Each structure stands twice: as structure tokens, then as C-alpha cells.
């Protein structure tokens, strides 16, 4: 079976203090006024807001996720946060291996794989991010890079739980540039084939999100591409009305 409901996930990155919770209250109102939408909705605020965001999400049609977790459950790791802590704060999902974490914190595929194991063991749905750089695409290596990232970042355990993968070409993140629909279609078909080859039915059921400058004006055409089962949205997730427009487009 292929995924039944698309997933629209917002990644707030390092944005948002108390006042940003007003946007979540607004999102709750908008979702409440539009029952029966096709998409599942997730918002990943910074860790400091997860608990309060989850309280707002109660009785609403969106859920809350983290943006990273450690590969261990607890211990002497100053500044880190574990899957158990995210779950305790009210998160259901966690973004792992985002290209900004790979770049800013040196996260390798092996680290992302350990974090993905920890998320699964801790009861969270991992959203594992992959994406090629512009140079890799220009050199014709995008398919190989994504194959390597998927092979290295996903533990065998991924086959046992709900699988969410986000394809985010690095050059399309926060730049206003999106991949062409043809490039997205080709990459998502490539990823689907690799996931089915490795995980069988679980790979067929995996949700494959596209991310990279998704906005209200391009969401519908991107979400209509075969094997695109949702979107990971950065900048356009910060304002409830923009984010809601993308949810409606799914
Ligand atoms: C992201 O970083 O996950 C992302 C897709 O960002 P943006 O939508 O701002 O390009």
C-alpha cells in the first residue's frame, strides 16, 4: 500500500519565543474551521516551546515534533535532549539529520542512524532528512548521494515503524529556489525504489516528503507529484495562515 494521508510538517528551526505560540493558536482555529482535511499536520518548534505547543495542540488536528535528539536516552551530554524528553514534553515526531545539523554540528549518516534508532526506541516517529548539495547535483551525483545517505542514515529498525523521509536538496532550502517538478518526481521514484528494495512493504508505505522553499504558491503542484507524500516546510511554516494554505493544498 502507498501512504494514505499526506503529512505537512513545519520546521521552525531556531525561531520562536513565547509570542510565536499565538501562531499555533491561530493554526488550531484554522484547522478547527476546516474539518476533514486530507493532510496530517505537524509543527516542530524549538525545544523550549514543545511543551506549551503540545498543550495548544490538545484537541486540535496538529501534532508537535522536535528538531533533533541525542542517540542516548540520558546522561552527561550538556545541551542535548533525548527522545524520551521530547516524548515527555508532548512530541510525537522528531526531525533527524537536517542538512543544517549535518553542516553546523558535523552529523554524519552514522550519527543520524544512531539517532533514528533512539527515536524509534523512544516511541517517536523519526523524520530522516537527506539531500544533495548544488555541486553534487551539477556533477550528476545526486542519485548516488541520496542512495548513500539513505543507506547510511536508516537503521534496519526503520522497517518496523512508520517511516518518514524528507528529500531536501540543500540548495533549495531557504533560498526561494525549488527543484523542478521533474527532478522531484525522479528523485522520489528513486528513493521509493531503494526503500522498497531494502524494506519491502514498509518502504512502499513510507511517507516521502519534499522540502525546500515550499510555499503557498507552489505547494499544490509539488504535492501532486507522484511519490510526494507531503512536505517539510521551513520559512513558510512560521506564519499560521501561510502554513495553513499549504496544508489545504495537500
Ligand atoms: C527546511 O529547512 O526544512 C526547509 C524546507 O526550509 P525552507 O522551507 O525555508 O526552504
TrEMBL record:
Taxonomy, superkingdom: Bacteria
InterPro entries assigned: Aldolase_TIM, TIM_sf, TrioseP_Isoase_bac/euk, Triosephosphate_isomerase, Triosephosphate_isomerase_AS
Protein role: Involved in the gluconeogenesis. Catalyzes stereospecifically the conversion of dihydroxyacetone phosphate (DHAP) to D-glyceraldehyde-3-phosphate (G3P).
Main location: cytoplasm
Keyword Isomerase recorded: yes
The protein's name in its UniProt record: Triosephosphate isomerase
Entry similarity comment: Belongs to the triosephosphate isomerase family.
Record keyword Kinase present: no
Compartments, record wording: Cytoplasm
First and last residue of the signal peptide: none
Residues that coordinate or bind substrate: 11-13, 174, 213, 234-235
Source organism of the structure: Pelagibacterium lacus
Classification via CDD domains: TIM
Amino acid at each position: 500500500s502507498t501512504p494514505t494521508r499526506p503529512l505537512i510538517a513545519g520546521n521552525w528551526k531556531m525561531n520562536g519565543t513565547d509570542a510565536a505560540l499565538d501562531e499555533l493558536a491561530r493554526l488550531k482555529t484554522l484547522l478547527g474551521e476546516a474539518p476533514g482535511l486530507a493532510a496530517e499536520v505537524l509543527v516542530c518548534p524549538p525545544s523550549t516551546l514543545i511543551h506549551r505547543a503540545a498543550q495548544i495542540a490538545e484537541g486540535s488536528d496538529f501534532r508537535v515534533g522536535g528538531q533533533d535528539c541525542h542517540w542516548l536516552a540520558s546522561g552527561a551530554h550538556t545541551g542535548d535532549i533525548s527522545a524520551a524528553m521530547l516524548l515527555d514534553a508532548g512530541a510525537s515526531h522528531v526531525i533527524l539529520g537536517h542538512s543544517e545539523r549535518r553542516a553546523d554540528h558535523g552529523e554524519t549518516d552514522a550519527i543520524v542512524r544512531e539517532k533514528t534508532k533512539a527515536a524509534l526506541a523512544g516511541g517517536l516517529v523519526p523524520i530522516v532528512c537527506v539531500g544533495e548539495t548544488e555541486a553534487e547535483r551539477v556533477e550528476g551525483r545526486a542519485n548516488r548521494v541520496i542512495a548513500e545517505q539513505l543507506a547510511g542514515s536508516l537503521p534496519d529498525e526503520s522497517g518496523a515503524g512508520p517511516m518518514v523521509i524528507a528529500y531536501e536538496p540543500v540548495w533549495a532550502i531557504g533560498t526561494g529556489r525549488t527543484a523542478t517538478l521533474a527532478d522531484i518526481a525522479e528523485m522520489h521514484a528513486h528513493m521509493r525504489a531503494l526503500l522498497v528494495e531494502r524494506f519491502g512493504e514498509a518502504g512502499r508505505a513510507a511517507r516521502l516528503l519534499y522540502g525546500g522553499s515550499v510555499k503557498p504558491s507552489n505547494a499544490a503542484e509539488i504535492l501532486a507529484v507522484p511519490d510526494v507524500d507531503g512536505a517539510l516546510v521551513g520559512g513558510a511554516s512560521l506564519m499560521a495562515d501561510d502554513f495553513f494554505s499549504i496544508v489545504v493544498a495537500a
